[in-house]
Amino acid sequence: MIKLLIADDEPLVCVGIQSMLKWDELEVEIVGTARNGQQASEMIRDLQPDIVITDIKMPLLTGLELIKSCREAFGRVPLFIVLTSYEEFEYAREAMKYQAVDYLIKLELDAEALQAAVTKAILILREVRHTPALLMQKSSMQALREKFFIRLFNSLFDSDEQYCLQREDLGIDFSSSFYAVGYCEIQVSENAPVSGEKLLSLCTSTTQMVRETLSRFLPCYVTTLDLRHFTVILCLSDEQVSNWRTLASNAIQKTLTLLHNYFSVSVRIALGHIVEEPRLIGASYQSARRGFHETTKVKPIIFCDVGHSDLEEAAHLHEIRTSIRRAMEEIDINTLSHTLTTIAGELSAFPERRLQAMDAAYSILYMAISLLPDGEKMVEQIFSHEPDGYRVIYRLKTTEEIAEWIRQLRDGLGELLHSQKHRYKRQVITNIQEYIRSNLKKKLTLNSVAAAFNFSPNYLSQLFAKYAGESFVEYVTGVRIAVAKELLSQDEIRIYEVAEQLGFESAFYFSKVFKKVEGISPREYLQRTGNAESAYRHKEN
């Protein structure tokens, strides 16, 4: 629940605000009311509300002073909605300079105005907490998780070992008994189209609310495919599977209602058939996506039976998709161009099977967005001449039009990747280096890290040597020893504890590696840095 605090020295105003809206339907909990600015300040510190509705004029501490002090102490959150009168309007304008979300004139306050201000605050709150990582660059772990699910949906793992290693490495819990995938589309009114940053904000807010709300009813994973589409993996227990459709319908309907209340957005979802093995989640995804496009009735929730793609079998698209995935990850322009040419030709050979062709094109689109560096921006650039950008794919009528879309993608990717190939590969190394620094406690072998990024060990070794200026082993060792030196400066830590924290098999091996790199043992390093007491303690331990 989102926590809200009301601060006003007029009791009737506090009571009125509390009773004006059905706060539960907005997923908002009123955690308290304050009668003066000083009490409000103390309650903000103790209760940590997300949103504060405050009067401008209050005893002991004004609303404006309250906002200023909270900005200095807590940063952007809590968000403030200001209550004011006509004669205090200049104060309200000053409050807006301190990032107050909105102001409400007391004499005009009604349920509609209050709900609009609170909804605006909720939207900003979600953006403040979750959007920056998407606007700048997703964290390495989140990006890897999304790539993992894209591979799972499209059966792109080379082996069970690679799949298990990545799943464990990313902390993905697949301990449930059954799974079902929902293919979801954010539906935007044609009369009020949304694009650019507004569409990004809408997508981010929608998927985040789905993630937060749906998980209260059923464990789930949410993955963004593009700015209009995302997936939901429902994780089901043995007890839930007998009536899973009812459970899923109820949970999804409540989530869709909240989405409409908050953002006035509609989402259509198709749920694939349930599967018992996580490795079969891709089959549920494929049936959900196919059912979504085959269903002519406009329903918010669709349940799909097992689907089957004759075209994929005939054209061996599984092997082709694997080839595309590896070419994208390794920025192999020639292989990528050849493979996309092949798949476009295969699609043209079956002009009567548009739905299967769409499946193939969507797979390529989602792989490009998730696997290529700056994939979303790159695909947008390629189709910038289209009014809908790359999303023109959703309006194509024939298999040949779909094949031509793939050819345009092929030509655009070839040109962009050729001009920025080296920068992208350096970025790959940067991502791997960040991954290494974040996982020093693990056993970081060339094989394990290559598997985490879906590279062959030989390719990763060559990439590292060329773009990092040192070998993979040299980099891992160097980072571990640099961190070890920082840890050794702490008075309360022992050498064997440092060895354990940094993934060394023993304190003896750690000391051996440390001496090889630094020329002295860890204890001698402590003595040279002036920490004689710590060095003596390490010797005794």
Walkthrough of the structure:
The protein is α/β, with parallel strands linked by helices and 541 residues long. It folds into 4 domains: 2-133, Rossmann fold, CATH 3.40.50; 138-172 and 309-436, no CATH class; 173-308, Alpha-Beta Plaits (2-Layer Sandwich), CATH 3.30.70.270; 473-540, Orthogonal Bundle (Arc Repressor Mutant, subunit A). The protein contains 23 helices and 10 strands. It has helices spanning 11-20, 37-47, 63-74, 89-97, 111-135, 140-153, 160-169, 196-214, 244-263, 281-294, 310-315, 317-329, 333-348, 354-371, 375-382, 399-438, 446-452, 457-467, 472-488, 495-501, 507-518, 522-528, 532-540; strands at 2-7, 28-34, 51-55, 79-84, 102-105, 178-187, 220-224, 229-236, 266-271, 301-303. The strands form 2 sheets. A 5-stranded parallel beta sheet has the order 2-1-3-4-5, with helices on both faces. A 5-stranded mixed beta sheet has the order 7-8-6-9-10, sandwiched between helices. Helix 17 crosses helix 18. The longest helix is centred in the C-terminal third of the chain and has 40 residues, at 399-438. Residues 130-139 and 307-315 have low confidence and may be disordered.
